[in-house]
Amino acid sequence: MIEISTSVLDVDEENSVQAFYNLETAKIDYFHIDVMDGIFVENNTLLKMKDFALKVHTIAMTPMDVHLMVKDPMSVVDYFIDQGADRITFHIEACENKEKVLEIINYLKENGVKVGIAVSPDTNIEEVYEYIPFVHMILVMSVVPGKGGQKFIESTIDKIKTLKKYCEDNNYEIDIEVDGGINDVTAKDVIEAGATILVPGRYVISADNYNDAIKKLRELE
Ligand code: DX5
Ligand code: ZN
Predict the structure, then answer these.
(1) Domains contained in the chain, number
(2) Which ligand is nearest to the CA of 116?
């Protein structure tokens, strides 16, 4: 059963509470919180995403899937742990060595949070294989991290298939989340390739009716 983690990056701050109520009513599986520090990626969404996480934590029951696009994940994790994040994903490209990756994995687990590792388009999927036994999810980026509304990178499909086969061959049961340029066309290929969680942003947030957009994606399975 495919899950949908909707990115709230495009939600306007002034009507964010209403948007979160509407997303919850549309029965999304997660709120996808895109945290950007202006260093790892050009955009800085830290204050906006801290505000959104607080609001979601306050008014919603739907779990939070926090995507850290930050140079120093340990510098921000505590805030999102305190806001009740269900899962927190950090980028393999932000970690200078294996010790750093394992430090963040262990810290998140010790704080009762599910762990994801994100892989940018230019990073080989094999880079994360050694960590799969210790995490709950791999987030395969299908756009260059840093902004919404970008075009889906087609080569991601093969990356998802490769990861899925590696997990099957080694009996690893983890989520494969795909993030960037997800819509009612790209979602079909991504699901067929083996994704278990889709991260649509603009496709949902720009829709007249969130329910219809979410329903359309679920029907592709
Ligand atoms: C990009 C973010 C994605 C993005 C998805 O850096 O990680 O979550 O907001 O938005 P769309 O679906 O518009 O590409
Ligand atoms: Zn994201």
Answers:
(1) 1
(2) 2
Query: DSSP string covering 119-145, please?
Result: E-TTS-GGGGGGGGGG-SEEEEESS-T
Q: If you measure from the C-alpha of residue 97 to the centroid of ligand 2, how many angstroms do you get, rounded to a whole number?
A: 23
Q: What is the pLDDT of residues 8-34, one digit of tens each?
A: 999 999 999 999 999 999 999 999 999
Q: Which of 29, 37, 65, 179 is catalytic?
A: 179
Digit-coded pLDDT (tens) for 123-142: 999 999 999 999 999 999 99
Q: What is the pTM of this model?
A: 0.98
* 86 catalytic per annotation: no
Probe target for ligand 1 pocket from 44, 68, 119, 179, with the most ligand atoms within 8 Å of CB: 179
Of the residues 34, 37, 65, 175, which is catalytic? 34
Å from CA of 143 to ligand 2 middle: 9
Domain residues for 112? 3-218
**H-state helical runs in 7-148:** 16-25, 46-59, 77-82, 98-110
Which pLDDT score, from 0 to 100, does residue 1 have?
A: 87
Mean pLDDT of the chain: 98
CATH of the domain at 189: 3.20.20.70
